[in-house]
Amino acid sequence: MGIFIEDLLNFGNLIDAEIEIKLSQEHLKKAYANLDFYIRDGILGIVFNRKSFLFNKTHEIRLSDVDSRVRKDRENQRQWVFLKLLSKGGLEELTKLEAFATEGDYLGMDIMPAIVYTETYEKIPRQFREKLIINKCKIGKDSFSVFFKFEK
Fold it and tell me: Is a pLDDT exceeding 50 seen at residue 2?
């Protein structure tokens, strides 16, 4: 006899489970096609071009996970990651995009558009996907890890 999703919904241990979803720069690039990303030694970089008259100007924003914050926006079903700004070149242009916001010295990014491209997310039953709540994040050597728990 197998385990049914209804059994999992009522199973208390799943509520306490924490899931790590690792994002590569390719996942981020798929989610935000007009931006380029790099992950190196605890730094997340966002690179993008802006046209000004006849020339393209390249901007780079560097982020760190030191004192990072996370938040779930229940109204819009967004999961936000706020990372410490190390450089601000082109920040105004980036925050014009709907998925980015600033709070003081932190840049917020809606992480869910990138999460949906991962294998781990695909393996989560549909009934649980809306119960995911962001818990913390960490920038590693070559990946960006986001940790989720299940809300009751």
Answer: no
Q: Are 45 and 38 in contact (CB under 8 A)?
A: yes
HSE, CB side, 13 Å, CA atoms: give it for residue 41: 0
HEC sequence for 100-152: EEEECCEEEEECHHHHCCCHHHHHCCHHHHCCEEEEEEEECCCCEEEEEEECC
How far apart, in whole angstroms, are the C-alpha atoms of residue 113 and residue 99? 9
Per-residue CA distances from 88 to 2, 40, 97, 106, 151 (Å)? 53, 18, 15, 10, 35
55-60: long-range pairs with CB below 8 Å, 24+: 59/89, 59/90, 59/93, 59/94, 60/87, 60/89, 60/90
Look up residue 115 and give its two tokens: 């999460």
Q: Provide the CB-side half-sphere exposure for 49 (13 A, CA).
A: 8
Predicted confidence (pLDDT) per residue in 83-111, tens digit: 999 998 889 989 999 999 999 999 999 99
Q: CA angle, corner 90, sides to 143 and 108, nearest 5?
A: 50
Which residue in this structure is represented by tokens 């385990």? 3
